[in-house]
Specification:
It contains seven helices and no strands. With about 200 residues, the chain is mainly alpha-helical.
Amino acid sequence: MSAITDFFQKIQNQIVEIQTTINQIKTSWENFQKFWDLFFTLVPWEVLLLLIFSVILLSIFNSVSPKTPKANLTIAVLLLSVLWIYFWGLFSKEISYGKVILASFYILLPLHAIGLGQWVYRFGKKIYWKKRRIQPKTWESALHQLSKDYHNLVGNAHLFHENIQENRGHLLEEIKQMEQSIQGIKSLLSKEKLMEIQNPEEST
């Protein structure tokens, strides 16, 4: 009797396991559907289609110019966008240019976001150091910056003495930075001279 009970118990356990597995598959499928519904709510299906064809073109362009993958993908997206508009115009009287531009931006903006951020960072850093050189707050900081710029210029001039022409842009930029540091020292001298004129008693 106990053997029969165990047999039916095993069958019942297997049925429960099968039902649990089915429920898990059903839940996973529902979550999968929700994910793609949300995905296509945020990202239009045209973007995915454009990306697939862009990757195909990218593989062709990379075989010709493997060192410029970012530029290759940009050209692929722009070329496909132009073809998209062209064929859309052949089969339809109204062309939604906004949809094509939006789909292109979905790919191009993330692609160039890092490069754009790096450019903004370098530009801001350049402005910051230019201001520090031209408008130093103390003599010590002005002299330290001038000394640093001078040693950098002389060191690189010695380093590049065999190929000056190839590095002339870099050296000219360092000369420009040293001139800015000299300009900052001149501005401090002008301020001190002005203070002596305004407060002659303190200078005697």
